[in-house]
Amino acid sequence: MRPDPAAGRHAALEAATAALDAPFAVVDLAALDANAADLVARAAGRPVRVASKSVRCRGVLRRVLARPGFSGVLAYSLREALWLAGGDDAVSTDVVVGYPSVDAGALRALAADEQAADRVTLVVDSVDHLDLLDAVVPPGTRPPLRMCLDVDASLRAAGGRVHVGVRRSPVHSPGAAVALARAVVDRPGVELVGLMAYEAQIAGLQDAPARRPLRGLAVRGLQAVSARELAHRRAEVVAAVSAVAPLRFVNGGGTGSLERTAAEPAVTEVAAGSGLYSPALFDGYRAFTGRAAAFFAVPVTRVPAPGVVTVAGGGWIASGPPGADRLPLPTFPAGLRWLAGEGVGEVQTPLRGPGTAGLRTGDRVWFRHAKAGELCEHVDVLHAVEGGAVVDALPTYRGEGRSFG
Q1: What is the pTM of this model?
Q2: How far is Cα 214 from Cα 211, in angstroms, rounded to an integer?
Q3: Which residue has the higher pLDDT, 153 or 310?
Q4: pLDDT given at position 1
């Protein structure tokens, strides 16, 4: 009989972390490195900018950015960007804030720091963002600040009545992008350096969801249509904006769409982060197979009935549309499932199934989070496992006393 690789991995994690008290979280460095190498290979020569919201641990960010093929950070908060780009030990000297910032205090801090102004790029999708910036720090009181246009990558059909994708930027057409680009270029105290367009309906949707073959077929068809439309429109937008101002970078994509996005000549770099941890949601993608790199373990605290165990906490639910795919996935031992009437709880989670057979009070159940960096909002450190042992304790943002929403 062939050995069960899942059972072997479970045993290895248990042995490596035997001295730790649950709950805790781990990152498997070998799996992390394998996933990083896969992202670079899928990017096919395009630099990969690391999406920090999907990592939320400076130690992991540094490890990944030290690898060939990765360059720069896509942050989710201006305060976070200032922290990552600050000082001589900066995580990165090239940080793009992937979402518009209306944080007046952070904008003032950016404007007061010439080093930060040279390292951090703000994203804008309307003149309102420029007006707010000028109201907080007038042009004559700040160094030139770097700007990136955020272009809507969603699919619009039926004359705009059908919208497939997330609600992000109002800038959709080449004409709208040019109008905003001219507004930036004409505005004192800012410099247009980049353009980004994130295709969430391609990168962020499972195209092979478990036990839902018809949905998978529909999603793949929609993604193919959207990818063709976006490649054409993105090229037009980039060409039109480049006629207004030279662009240093054009960013696109995500873990779920690296191959498609990297193949577009108009794109100069891609973004990815979730694929480093390969959370449970990525089990439903066909384009790649990641290796689970992040887990959390919680203890069994009760055995309330035959075939049922209860663990402490476990309700580390992911953001997004409510559904079973946003719940953490009980992974080790195999053969565990939630009780439909309770799901996962804040202080306790009952589990049933054949996997309960060998569990006793004090044993651990291992979960994978549905998403990636959100795991780090629940723990102070990621215990780094390598070679059958815990080799480091990497502080998460939370563990360093940082919370960016």
Answers
A1: 0.92
A2: 9
A3: 310
A4: 43
